[in-house]
Task: structure prediction
Amino acid sequence: MATIRLGCIADDFTGATDLAGNLVRAGMRVVQAIGVPRGPLEEDVDAVVIALKSRTIPADQAVTQSLAALAWLRNAGARQVYFKYCSTFDSTPRGNIGPVTEALMEALGTDFTIACPAFPENGRTVYKGYLFAGDVPLDESGMKDHPLTPMNDANLVRVMQAQSKGRVGLVDYRTVAAGAEAIRARFDALRREGVSVAIVDAISDADLHRLGPALAGMPLVTAGSGVAIGLAANWGITPAAQAASLPAPGGFRAVVSGSCSVATRGQVAAFLAAGGRAFALDARALSADASHAEALATTAAASLSQGPVLVYSTTDPEAVRAVQGQLGVERAGALVEAALARVACHLVERGVRQLVVAGGETSGAVVQALGVDCLRIGQAIDPGVPWCAARSPVAGGTVHLALKSGNFGSEDFFLKAFDRLAAFP
Ligand code: ADP
Result:
């Protein structure tokens, strides 16, 4: 069995992809697992990111799942563990960042770690312990109104303290600016004072690169995805295109889109305007006749040999509201997701091996239907959306997947994704 260096536990799926992308950019070969893998990994990689769905579940369940992930990662040889949460520190006074961090520390037998959601490239900076989203403190950003994890305090020392048993301290930006040695000295001083978790300031990517070497050998790192950019060098790994190399793609090409977000609507419109072969799934017809999806998939599959096909339920907010009014929000969503997952399976059965899926929930449904549990992460098509290679029992082998969150990607995403895959090394 291959031995990994960095073992990561992410509290949601897109966050896991985000972290995996940063590790690949830093030169690490990465597999993203959907949930805790059932067996050992076949591939030889530097890092594994286990994607959980533990951000907003009860804290005790988040702890149990995270400890199961930790056990798998240690068994796979992970020499350092990275607990990844959102760069807006999404949590409530009950957790789950604090309880999961402390449970991982206990299991690893360590008395000190850091917490740093900073990702300056994406506008997330930490200054004197205060987290900024763009130009405003977190509690003045859209996060104050988040339906599940409203963030009403930007001071991370206070936020983390409220959900921790141990003491929380701060490594401020002046120390970070002074470099790895100064940061390590501050870690030692905080530790002597009885602090177990240090919030670390970072206002630039350079800060994260200075922080990286100070984290060498630390059993547990907790952070957003930004801190990852400074870690690979600790193992002598430097950025290299080969880290993102995937098996050669083959088969037919298709896009399945269940996202109704603004960016996806633009991408569907651009695909249609360019004369692409596109097939619209009618959510109303679906509720009346379950075979509508299969009929559509069969029609779409018939033209696969002529180039990429698009099957989409993507539509404008008015049409979505009308369907939701008729079927109920949840039922409409579940019905369309299940139908698109069946369409994706049908297309793969008919020879599609390069598949773009638009929509977070839609991607989850498609990946599950294809029986995919591990993704080898390749190069990004656009920020946050890499091509991945996965083994699928439905494909009877490898299928290349690009799983796109609704609002990600440029307008020509559906057109350029396949060209990019063909051009990758
Ligand atoms: P995004 O990443 O843009 O949020 P998701 O796939 O996560 O996309 O969510 C889109 C939701 O909308 C899914 O539950 C999907 O089934 C649902 N949906 C898609 N098309 C329609 C439609 N035409 N009518 C009603 N609901 C739809």
Observations:
- The chain has two domains: 6-240, 245-423.
